[in-house]
Amino acid sequence: MRIANPMMSVPGAMKAMLDLSAAAAATGLDADFVELICLRVSIMNGCGACIDYHTKLLRKADVADERVYAVAGWRDVPYYTDAEKAAFALAEEMTHVQVSDAVWAEVARHWTEQQLAGLMLAICAINTWNRLNIASQQKVSA
Length: 142
Description:
8 helices, globular, Alkyl hydroperoxide reductase AhpD, AhpD_core, mainly alpha
């Protein structure tokens, strides 16, 4: 670890991130699915601390093993709905900071504008967590 977690070190930072996540949740998104999105993005970014954290949350919530373990291969498995697959595509493209018109059109077919906004906020939040944890070399606690 290079420094203590910035979210814990800067007054108000943790509250701001928790408030952002609460705002995303208030859009009516399924909490377990948002955790799957967080897991997928964390895998993409290689954030071990977040992969560990979100996997444990999903297991605690009794999300089906198939949905947890197959999240990296979501395109090729039958465990997710078309709406969920569209949201995974949005998460991946937002993580790469380029959302194509095709992905946007597909995700907009399945989610309301408010839900889309919530998804976008949740995706931004997990990317922020990932970047801070990776840059400061946060480690998984045993």
